[in-house]
Amino acid sequence: MITWKKLTQKERQQRIEKALEENVNFAHDASLGYPASKLDNKVFNSDAPFLKDAPTLQTYVANPNHIGCHTIGSSEKAFSGTQEMEREVLKVLAVDIFKAEADSYDGYIAPGGTEANIQAIWMYRNYFMNHFQAKPDEIAIIASEDTHYSIPKAANLLLLDRYSVPVHFDTRELDNAALENLLVSAKTNGKKYFIVVSNMGTTMFGAIDNPDDYISLLEKHQLEYQLHIDAAYGGFVYPFSNKDSVINFENPKISSITIDAHKMLQAPYGTGVFICRKGLIENVLTKEAEYVEGMDLTLCGSRSGANAVAVWMILFTYGPFGWCEKIRVLQMRTDWLCEQFDAMNIKYFRDPNMNIVTVEAKYIPHVLEAKYDLVPQKHDETNEWYKIVIMDHVEVDHLSTFIADLKSTLHAEKRTAPQV
Ligand SMILES: *Cc1c(COP(=O)(O)O)cnc(C)c1O
């Protein structure tokens, strides 16, 4: 770990206060040009006594705007203090967790995983257009059938064709034979450039795609491609539960990663993270964004600096060992649940390094779906799976109540079923 460590409450408070001092202070400084200010004082009283010991909330009230991208070129000077904290967050993620070389990446805290994924696909589309004179209909998006719906959304917005790779029902692994057929037929249909999205934790199953499946087939067929990792779900789990993970920037074929802090890290909503290798993000420079100092390389435009500070707070409260411990606990609870299912001969999918268990729907009586807020794969009668996500608030006590309930419901069903 280069940057990431645990800090005391006092150290955290001092770091944030220093950052806020380096930002413009709308209460004291004469700042005339921005359509921005601190939060309306009539509504959000900045003298409220509880704010004194709550530096993240102080940042919300100060309301810094982190518009633009702060790992490259110049940035809006008014918010340089909290922008530096955003760079600290990105460094922990890119270098300490996803093993990039220092200063070899660009990135920002996006409104969410959806925006970060669209940013990635936009960036690669333009990369192929700028460097290869590609036409949009020569570019294809490739991702598995379990991929998050932000990828079809990106395909729709960016007018790109998308090919969906089937997965095996039980293992949720990519069907490599189908992938190869699909690449060959895409090539026949005039596709020359491929934007690949490989999942680190699918939303429904927590399945981890193997990026090498994509890499080896694309290279076998000598196809031009760029590879994005969607770690919105698994980015704060998998690298910690699987110390041998090689899905990171040490693999030269991986060029960008999406990570959601507002899922497993329990940060406030509005904290997706986008990180890419240097030399790529320039492809989405909007030259017309002339009023923004340093110009804008992001999809979203204005965004809250307080979100960066909130993520920083979580990372530096836990530190790397504290976070590993938290993931360990979730893993142990997930193991416990799987042992119960095994004992009951109930079939489920779980990646051994993830905290999601997805059970075949036929084992789950309907009454329990609503009672325990289980999430179905599809909200109609074709549903085949329910998922259970072992978060901080899901304790073994809750799981054991659920298991007891499941046992008695199944038992009652068996007794009332007609004898054969
Ligand atoms: C949740 C999720 C997203 C999108 O995230 P939002 O933060 O809801 O925009 C993208 N990919 C995966 C795999 C996800 O689980």
Describe the structure.
This is Pyridoxal-dependent decarboxylase-like protein. It holds the Pfam family Pyridoxal_deC. Keywords: Decarboxylase, Lyase, Pyridoxal phosphate. GO terms for molecular function: carboxy-lyase activity; pyridoxal phosphate binding. There is one protein chain. The chain is an alpha/beta fold and 420 residues long. The protein has two domains: 62-318, Type I PLP-dependent aspartate aminotransferase-like (Major domain) (Aspartate Aminotransferase, domain 2, 3-Layer(aba) Sandwich), CATH 3.40.640.10; 320-410, Aspartate Aminotransferase, domain 1 (Alpha-Beta Complex), CATH 3.90.1150. 39% of the residues lie in helices and 14% in strands. It is built from eleven helices and eleven strands. The protein has a seven-stranded mixed sheet with strand order 1-7-6-5-4-2-3, with helices on both faces. Strands 8-9-11-10 form a four-stranded antiparallel sheet, with helices on one face. Helix 1 (9-22) crosses helix 3, helix 3 runs parallel beside helix 9 (305-343) and helix 4 (113-132) runs parallel beside helix 5 (150-158). The termini are far apart. The model has no long low-confidence stretch (mean pLDDT 94). It binds pyridoxal-5'-phosphate. Residues 112-114, 117, 148, 150, 199, 202-203, 230, 232-233, 260, 272 line the site of pyridoxal-5'-phosphate.
